[in-house]
Amino acid sequence: MELAGPGVSIRAPGPIGQTRPLSSASLGSWGVLTYRRGPESDPFGYIFRSARWLRDYDPPGVFPMWVNLEPTNVCQLDCLFCSRQLSQRPLGFLSLSLAKSLAREIAGSPGAAIRLTGWGEPLLHPQIRELVEIIKAEGIKLKIYTNGLALTQELMDAFMDLEVDDLQFSLQGLTPAQYEANRVGASYAALRERIVLASQRRGGREKPFLSLLTSVLADELELADPGIFTQQWLKLVDKVAVDLTNLNFVGQSPRVRPHLDRQSPGLKRGRCVDVFLALEVKYDGAIQFCGQDAQGRAEHTIGYAPALSLGEAWRGEALERHREAVGRNLGHAAFEVCRNCYHNTTKYDLFQKSLANSEAAQ
Q1: What are phi and psi of 215, to 5 degrees?
Q2: Cα–Cα dist 71/94, whole Å
Q3: Cα–Cα distance between 115 and 144 in angstroms, integer?
Q4: Which residue, of 1, 183, 350, 360, has the greatest Cβ tally within 10 A?
Q5: Which of 9, 2, 72 minimizes the C-alpha distance to 227?
């Protein structure tokens, strides 16, 4: 998920424990986004500030703005919020030959970018350096999502040499205890070590831009200050985003149920924007409507690359029917993943209230 666009509160850093508004926009429906050097420093600002991203997404352009590419569905963690815990997909890795085919097509649409993400940890791909090299050789802007724990000095140096545009670290919670409770198998100290490594190795170089995204449970907001969390991490990274953890996709998990009622009060669906902006490609070439399907269900799959090109999938009847169902109407109930999706809606109301109370106290 990208915290940028209408409804995002964008801030510049203030003293520890405080934030000051960068614009007159009120605290919106997505969370809080803070830049160390201002939003103009974001390498993907050209997307986030574009009319197409902000409002003119329908009718969709001739090609997606983002292609979300899954290097692997292998992960070393067992996270509370993650749909991977319910997935029965075979484990696997994106082939370099498929990556080359996709990169060549994406490069033909200037401005389109790739996010290495999905239902695994991208850095666990055994040929992650080669995969990045293929993408950057085509001149494509690239963002890599990572839990950070597999980052090494050698990998970080490679990412700098290859000019990866954005390396985003994902966390959960606002404290070490919250992080480790949410991300079973992870060490907060080990993660911080690796982010320090990334920051120090990059030094004064421009790339990669370093981002950090955390999401929180309702009770975690009562125990820790997101402002303090943000200011602490801005000493090491260029952007910090704080969001609310979405548990609706894993609501049937026994360990999630105790949190679900408080986490999802009064949810109401909104029309999907993602179907006008991005395509998802799984490691096996499955092209899907969005990235929320950890199972790789047939009902969410348009076809398979490279037999089906991304352009054909984007402009085809299957995706257009899906846009009509959930992007222009509220037909979410017809799709197993969509019926649990509450993006672009009221799911952040509790988060907004907590932050407003925190700011009032300051």
Answers
A1: -125, 155
A2: 5
A3: 6
A4: 183
A5: 9
Amino acid code (one letter) for 228: I
β-pairing verdict for 239-244 and 183-184 = unpaired
Structure token pair of residue 50? 């574009």
Tokens matching residue 335: 């799709």
Return phi, psi of residue 170, to 5°. Answer: -110, 135
> Comparing 26 with 113, which gets the higher pLDDT?
113
Among 244, 269, 274, 273, CA closest to 259: 244
- For 244, the token pair is 């609310």
Please name every residue paired with 12 in a beta bridge, in sequence order, or none if there are none. Answer: 20
Q: What is the pTM assigned to this prediction?
A: 0.89
Alpha carbons 269 and 81: distance in angstroms, whole number: 19
For residue 75, give both structure tokens: 């992960």
CA angle 324/330/335 to nearest 5° reads 80
Phi, psi of 342 (to 5 degrees): -130, 35
Residue 79 exposure: Cα atoms within 13 Å on the Cβ side: 29
Tokens of 224: 């820790």
> Is a pLDDT exceeding 50 seen at residue 20?
no
Q: What is the pLDDT at residue 15? A: 35
In tens, the pLDDT along 342-355 reads 765 554 454 455 45
Angle 30-283-212 from CA coordinates, rounded to 5°: 35
On whether the CB atoms of residues 142 and 116 are closer than 8 A, the answer is: yes
pLDDT higher than threshold 80 for residue 267: no
Amino acid at 322: H
Alpha-carbon distances of 279 from 115, 129, 145, 269, 305, rounded to whole Å: 10, 23, 16, 21, 12
Of the candidates 205, 214, 129, 211, which has an alpha carbon nearest to the alpha carbon of residue 168?
211
Strand partners, 210: 167
Token pair recorded at residue 196: 């320090």
How high does pLDDT run on average in the chain?
Answer: 86
Q: CB atoms < 10 A from the CB of 195, how many?
A: 19
